[in-house]
Structure formats: structure tokens, C-alpha cells
Amino acid sequence: MKNTLNSNNSVKDFLCKNQPGSTFPPVAGNVEENDIIDVSDNPHSPIIVEVGGRTSKRIRISSGMGPLFYKWPLEHTSNRPVIALDVFDTPPPLPRVVKDYYKGFLEDPCSWAEKAVKEYGADMVSIHFPGLDPSILNRPVREAAEIAVEVLDRIKVPIIVGGCGNPRKDLEFFREVAEMASGEGIVLASVTVNMDIGEYAKLIVDHGHVALALAFMNISQLKYLSRKLVENGVPRNKIILDPSTGGLGYGLEYSFSIIETIKLGALRGDVDLQSPICIASSNAWAAREAWMKNPLWGDRKWRGPLWEAITAMTLILAGADMAMMLHPLSAKIVKRCCESITRVVDLPKAELVEKYMNWISPGGR
Amino acid sequence: MPSKVLRILRLLPRLNCGRCGYRTCMVFALKLAEGEEVPEKCPILVEDESYSKKLLELKNILRPPVRTVLIGKPPNSIVIGGKEVLHRHELTWRFPTPIAIDVSDEDSAEAVESRVGFVKQFYYERIGRRLKLDMVALRNSSGRREEFVKTLRRIIELVDVPLIICSLNPRNMEACLEEVGDRRPLIYAATWGNWRKMGFLANKYGCPIVASCPGDPEGLRRLVGALKSACSVDEIVLDPGTLPEADGILYTLGLFTYLRKKAIKGDEFLGYPLLAVPAVVHSGDMGDYASMEEALAASMLLSRYADIMILRSLEKWVHVALLCLRDNLYTDPRKPPIISPRLYEVGKPDATSPLLVTCNYALTFSLVKSDVERGGVDSWILVVDTNGTSVESAVAGGRFTAEKIVKAIKEWGVEEKISHKTIIIPGKAARIASKLRELIPGWTVIVGPKESKDIPLFIKEKWAVIVRGGDGNAAS
């Protein structure tokens, strides 16, 4: 919930300035008037970021080729978008419909994380430490790092560790946790332009971790971060991009267009944009439609999870390759949907076509 | 642009009759040129045969890569399609996807009534606008004619929204068209099994028609060709099939994407609106989850080029989410959502009512306003020009400053309207409070809550104490 949409300004600047082709110098001959790019014209391989290490299993996050399903006929793919569930070191003000799923677990990040993986099927866990913030718990960085390592030991799936949003304290924390979890391939969330990028990059390189570059709805900043990381020795397959996420009804359209633009830029050959994209659909809960009781809006038990699932799936279609999610039901639905991506080619098509026509109007075609 | 407007104007009747809803033919021509209207809105062009050539020419001038199709009869009509780009960051998507609610002729009389009633009554209010459902789709699932026509009659007694009539049986279809053919319903569907007869009906009744060839884009393309050449219909909607189950839906997204790409590239046989039927999810047995799956399928199809869709669920939470998504996707990506800065009234505030200040980002203002309304205390809201940025980023970017607030107080004559000289600033702007106190010495500056949802409680607990000397009941 950390990277909420708080810079509408840069979004608009971006969208006003970035008419097709202006930011990304088109590769000669590839760009048509209507900005339609054929995947086959642009042969670059997807970048695959591997997370995890000694303790946990390894997961591959692939940047894919452009927005989802841009190629026809559809092709087999073994990589589906990866789903992480959020855990917090100190329970933040969570909506009731989320809390209900973790009753009795909110005080202990380890069992919370375990529930997220074992019961709710998360591929990864994103553990955030708002408690590091001097104004919340002012938790010492060592203590936070120990919690992160304990979680990793317990769940044995790759983790994303998130700081409190204060660039100085976060870097201190990353230093601690990077060392303590050396070789574990964890994702350090996140590096921003306000942080000492050189030092952050060194932690990634020295301890074999994965960088998450976060820019608030600003593609040029994201490119800058990506370039800086590479300049400082971080391999491209250790970089994930986070363009920041506006939830449904609260800036989703900006995130949607930014992600599409990034993926099209990547297809046109912009290497800085070819890394996988991560979103935080947890931000969907910033919209009151997700959590507020209102008889005009229907049952919030369903409304909330749907709100987040739509946020996630819309952005996955635009090109997101992994999602940090909050509601277990949303995560489950989205994961199921993503699993279909790897199966579409072998669809029993005739059977489903039959079913479709019969449902509309019986009596055959 | 001007020459295009004149070319269009020359083809219009130029009688300035106003029947299209615009005062003059010139205004209508302008709207046509901007792509905000369709020529069929002019009844003379449609009804007077001597204009048929001009109408055709007009349509050619105006035709976007995905043509527009008009369903229903003005004023109860709806335009679909009209897409010119693949990605919304290139040009605003126009003609938001109408949502039709499915009614089966096997539904009980009460069910039909509640389904149609839902279309009529349901709304979702967002940034001061009422978003609504658009259409009713009648499905001949019984396969029988009497039930089909009976249900249709019941529907048109209840509503006058545009209709989709779904049957693959041409005789059943014609029975319905005899009832409502003049309302220009969308005919569903011509298939390779019935296309001659269905195409003939579309032509005879002047109705738009769906070409359906599920799972086979090449077959669909040829079917469109057949309808165009043999039946001379051009108001066509494409049904590439919405295949059920999670895998089927994802396949459908790939298919829709492929077809839309072809259309934007200029394939004239595929340059028609796409119909999606997320309702087909209900063909399986998923209980509570069916509405969830349907909503998720519909949401994905909304961003992947569905120009019209049929849904079955009557859950409010489904439609709130979908209408919100549709609203998001169809906004102009280049136009910032702003409101004009001034002093706004909530209820009927007087000289002793609270004064709150906020930014001019439309979403923020609309939330603050509705929260103040929820609190039930008449209030003043002073809106400062922050170039449409939210409070948090405007404070950070120097666009929500003490100076700007002072200027706004003067500009909108706040001091003449209130007597208490107390101003509540957003919690997220706490750091400008001291500067503001410096600039307006006679005033009391109060830092309000960080989240606007806490405004009602804040006002209830604090305002009375602050302004009315501890009279706790004065706020109510």
C-alpha cells in the first residue's frame, strides 16, 4: 500500500508530452501511423528475472513480448504473471473484508506469510515494514531484517521486502537485510530517484538480489533508474520496473496507459524498458468503492475483492508481469486467470464454441 | 477540419429543423466532423429516399477504421464502435461500451420484470455523474416462438432502451421484428447456417445485425463479406465468440486483440464493432463465483476492445466496478480531471458554517464534497487552483501554498460570507499551516484529517467546540 498514486502531475505531464513516438525514437521501418507493432518484426527475447535462492524455491518472472496476446496465432508460453501477497510487520489500517481472512495472524508476520502461501496460494510474499518509520514503531533495521529472514525460512518461497518509504532509513534497512539474506535472491522494494542508487546497486550485485525500480507514473524517471542501475553493474535480468499503480476509479487509466506505453517501447527496442513490470494492486483499496459499506454498491464482501482483481487483471493485460496483492480472494482469482494464459493454445475450442452457441440460442448454428 | 465540416454540411438537408437535437445543421456538421455524432441522427437523411446517396457519401467521409453502428431509434438510441486507434494514449476512445442485461425467454415473469427493472433503476454516481446500464438483450433459449414474442412484448411494455434480439432461428427472429422492427434492435445473429435469411431480415427491417462465427476469425471475415455483398447490409457487429471458462475467456481476448489490430490496419471486412458476451460464464455451474468470473471477464474485454457487451448478473457490485472501469478507460488521457477553483457550497451554508479548503483535482474535490455531505453539516469548500494535482503532490510541488490560499480567500470574497475567520486545511497540507497563520494573522488555521472520509467525524467532534464555544450539539 506504500506506493499510492500521489503524483498526478507527472502523469499528466507524461501523457501530454508523450504522443506516440516522441519519447521512444522509433526503430526505422517498424512504426506505422497507428502505432501498431507486430511482435514478429521485433525479435528480442523476453528478459527473465529469477528470484529466490538457497532457502526458497526459484521463480522466473518473464517480461514477455509486449502487452498480453499481441501475437496471433497465440503461442505457448511457460511463464505466467507472478502473484505476491502483502504482509506487514505492523498491522496497517486494513479494510475489514481483508482482515477477516487473516484473523489471529495479523500480529505475527511469519504466520501471516505462511497463511498467504499455504492457504491462499501466493507465489511470493511481499513483506512491508512500515514499522521502520520513525513516526510509527521506529523499529531498528536489524530487527526488521531478522523478521524478513525468519519469514523466508518459514515459507520457502521468494520474498519481496519493502521499506517504510523513507529513502535513508530504507537504504539502511536494505543494507542489513541484503547481507543477512545474501544469496537468497530477494527483491528489495524499492529504489527511487531520491535514494543513493550506487549504493543500492552495490547491495544487489554483491549479494545476488533483485532490484525493483519505482517511479511515480513517470516513464523517463523509470528509464533513468533502469539505466543508472545498469551503469552501476546490475545485470538487466536483475531489474524489475514498478511504474506505480493507480487502482480502479483512482488513476487506473493512467497506470494502464503507462504500462502499455512501456511495453510498446520495449518492443520497439528500448532496452531500458524491457525488464519485467511489477504492479501493486493493493492500491485498489484506496478507492472507497473497494471497502465502504453502501447498499447502492452491493455487497462489499464481493465488491472489494473484485475491485482489486479488476485492477490487477487490467494492468496484467496492459503488460504487467507480476503483482503485489492484498486480498486473498483477489489473488486467487487473478492467479487462476493467469494460469489460463499458459493453456489457451491447447483449448478444446470446438467444445466451447458449441457450448457458447447453445447457451445463446439452441438449435445449432 | 473546416473544409471537412463544409463538405459534411453540403450533404446535410440544411433545413435547420433541429430534429437531430442540434439547433442548426452547421452545429450538427461540426459534431459529425469531430466524431461525436453519427449521420443517422438526422431523420431526414434516413427517411427521405432522395437523400440516400448523400447519406452514403457522408458515411464514407466519416467512416473510422471501426465503423459506428447505431442501435435503436433516436432519441432512444446508442452508438457503438467508432474506434480509430488501438491504444487509448493515442486518442481518446469514443463511444463507451454499452452494457446490455440478458433476459431469457425461459425466465419467469417476475425474473423478466426484475431484470428489466434493474436496467431501468440501477445507477452508480461518480464525480457528480450518474452512470447507468444501457440495453436489454432478449435470448431465445427456449427455442420456441410464442415464449420469445411474449417475453419481448413484456420487455417493451417496461422499458424503451435499445434492444438486442438473440435467436438463430430466422422465423422466430422475424416474429419479433414484426413487433419491434421499427425500433432498430440489434439482430443476433447471422451465422453460416442462416445468413441469407437473417441478412434478408436485416435489410427488410433496416436493422443492424451481428455476424457470428465463434472461434474462427477467417470464417467471420468471409461471413461479413457475404452479408455485405449478397444482402447489402453494412450495419454489422462482429461476434468472434466469447468462449466460456477461464481458458476460453483468455482465448477470446487474444482473438479480440487480433481482430481489432486488423481493423485499425484497414481491413474493411473486420472494421466493425465487436460484441462480447461475458454472460456465457453462467452456462457453467459456479454458484456465487459466477458473477465474480463474469465481472472479471467483462472487465478484461472492456480494455480489450469490446464495443458492446451482454451481461447476466444483477449484482450491484458487478456493475459498479464495470461502470467505473468503463468510465476510466474512456476518459481523455490528455485532459486533466479538474474543476474550476472557487468557493463551493455544500447544502445551504451561512456565516457560521465551517470552511474547508482543498485542491482542484476533480476526484479529490468530489470525495471531499461527498464526505462533507455525509457529515450532514452545511459547509463552504474553498477550492484552490493546483493544476489538477492532489493535495499531497500539490504540497510537495509547491502548488498548494499559503499564498495561494490567501489569494483564493480574497478572490472569492470569503470574508464577506463567513464571520468566524476559521479555516480547516487538509491534514496532508499540515506543513503549510504555520506560514498561513503568518499571512492571515486574524484567522484561526486548523489542520483537518488526512483522509477526507474522516471529515464528518472531525466536524462533529471539533467544529462545535472550536467555533461555538463548546456547545456540542450545535453541529447537528
Percent of residues in helices of chain A: 25-40%
The level-1 CATH class of chain A = Alpha Beta
Strand content of chain B: 15-25%
The oligomeric state of the chains shown is heterodimer
CATH architecture of chain A: Alpha-Beta Barrel
Pair with the biggest interface: A-B, 74 and 88 residues
Give the distance, in angstroms, between the N- and C-terminal Cα atoms of chain B: 57 Å
Structural class of chain A: alpha/beta
Major sheet strand order of chain B: 10-9-8-7-6-3-12-11
| CA-based gyration radius of chain B | 27 Å
Q: Identify low-pLDDT runs of chain B.
A: 470-476
What characteristics describe this protein?
heterodimer; A: 365 residues; alpha/beta; TIM Barrel; 8-stranded parallel beta sheet; two-stranded antiparallel sheet; 12 helices; disordered N terminus; B: 476 residues; 3-methyladenine DNA Glycosylase II, Chain A, domain 3; Rossmann fold; 3 domains; 3-stranded mixed beta sheet; 18 helices; 16% strand
Summarize the structure.
The complex is a heterodimer of chains A (365) and B (476). Chain A has helices at residues 8-17, 96-99, 109-118, 141-155, 167-180, 197-207, 219-231, 252-267, 288-291, 300-318, 328-341, 349-360, and strands at residues 48-51, 59-62, 82-88, 124-128, 159-162, 187-191, 210-214, 239-242, 278-280, 322-325.
Provide an overview of this structure.
The complex is a heterodimer of chains A (365) and B (476). Chain A contains twelve helices and ten strands. Chain A has a single domain, classed as TIM Barrel (Alpha-Beta Barrel). Chain A has helices spanning 8-17, 96-99, 109-118, 141-155, 167-180, 197-207, 219-231, 252-267, 288-291, 300-318, 328-341, 349-360, and strands at residues 48-51, 59-62, 82-88, 124-128, 159-162, 187-191, 210-214, 239-242, 278-280, 322-325. In chain A, α4 packs across α5 (167-180). Chain A has an eight-stranded parallel β-sheet with strand order 8-7-6-5-4-3-10-9. In chain A, α7 links the parallel β7 and β8. Chain A is α/β, with parallel strands linked by helices. Chain A starts with 7 loop residues before the first helix and ends in a 5-residue tail after the last helix. In chain B, α17 (433-439) links the parallel β16 (422-425) and β17. The longest helix of chain B is centred in the middle third of the chain and has 20 residues, at 245-264. In chain B, α6 (145-158) packs parallel to α7, α7 (170-180) runs parallel beside α8 and α10 (245-264) packs parallel to α11. With 476 residues, chain B is of the alpha/beta class. Chain B has three domains: 1-62, Electron transport complex subunit B, putative Fe-S cluster (3-methyladenine DNA Glycosylase II, Chain A, domain 3); 63-329, TIM Barrel, CATH 3.20.20.20; 343-467, Rossmann fold. Chain B has an eight-stranded parallel β-sheet. In chain B, strands 13-15-14 form a three-stranded mixed β-sheet, with helices on both faces. At the A-B interface, α1, α8, α10, α11 and α12 of A face β4, α10, α11, α12 and α14 of B.
